[in-house]
Amino acid sequence: MFNIERWQEIFEAIRKNKLRTFLTGLSVASGIFILVILLAIGQGMSNGVAKEFEKDATNRISVWTNVTSEEYKGLNPGRIIEMDNRDYEMAVNKNRDKLEYKSGVYSRWGQLTTYKKENGSYRVEGVRGDYQFLENATLVAGRYINQGDLNNFEKVTIIGNQVYLDLFKEGNAIGEYVDIAGIKFKVVGIYSDPGGEREETRLFIPLTTAQRVFNAGDKLRSLAFTLEKQDNYEDALAASEAFSAGLETDLKIAHTISPTDDRAVNVNNTLENAKKFYDLNNMIRWFFWGVGICTIIAGVVGVSNIMLIIVKERTKEIGVRKAIGAQPWSIIGMILHESIFVTAVAGFVGLIFSMLLLQFVGPFIETDYIRNPSVNFSVAITTVIILVVAGAVAGFFPAYRAANIKPIEALRDE
């Protein structure tokens, strides 16, 4: 079926109809090109969302308070709600068997920090030892806060990598003392954070020390928790939502807040947020698939139309072939061969151009929610194979029509 004469016929037909073949191939190549680029953008969005959620623990639940927005039990709206150690202890005692990591947080912004002649203004956060994992931070040197630091109100600090570069200029920092708001703290650790420079311009000190040196009493700015791992995502999400709702209710009762007040207590559930982002991302990716496939279908329809034209132009030739004994499947093979060849070549050209573009441009694309768009090579090859099969199907119907042409009618065709 596929012999040298058949190839000569195909190239001769292409040579005689260069523009038509080029435009047909262009429609097919552009379909593959667009589909691969759209799939890569969808993957880039997945990468971007994943990168955003790397900044903190993926199942982190953060709680902070604001002012009341509703009157409740004779208390006017506009009351400032402040959490304290009792709120933290209540949450821990009630959910001890559910919690993985936990910490209260007391923060101070814009604290002048000095080391010798270097200084900078940074956020200082009083935390517990678990906060390292809640922040997804990695120790570069030294250690993190421990229970002894909390019990003894130690004046020690763990500094972010950017703070280290600003103040110590890559020199030794462990064991040195920095001045934070006029108080000496010993540097016992340096950390890095997936969130980058913004997250690394902070200093962590023991929570008990922060409350004492900043005259905060037992006040807390926020609470942070992660729950024990579940067997699957659905169970983890259900447990996270139940914990968040229960904690919000407990805090509203403790601080005499209306159950319908949606401003006084704020709960941020990263697992819940992640589900929303990934659901949206999946919808966008399915939309991209739809657009790309429609583009390919348009190219395949173009191939089918061209094959119909070719059959019409070669009607007399087909009649002569049949008159001298050509079998129907021989005629079908002749038409299909050209259809598959044009579709395959155009498809691989579109694939190569799209992969080259992604290879050289993709790594430089880094926005908040799109990072390094790329596509799995096996997926790309599969789309081309599907395209070739579709091209064969598109060429079959014109080929079948050609095979059923009666020799006498074909010879009379003008």
From TrEMBL:
Ligase listed as a keyword: no
GO molecular function: ATP binding; transmembrane transporter activity
Domain annotation MacB-like periplasmic core: ranges: 21-239
Mode of membrane association: Multi-pass membrane protein
TM region positions: 21-41, 286-311, 331-357, 377-397
Family recorded in the similarity comment: Belongs to the ABC-4 integral membrane protein family.
Protein name (database record): ABC transporter ATP-binding protein
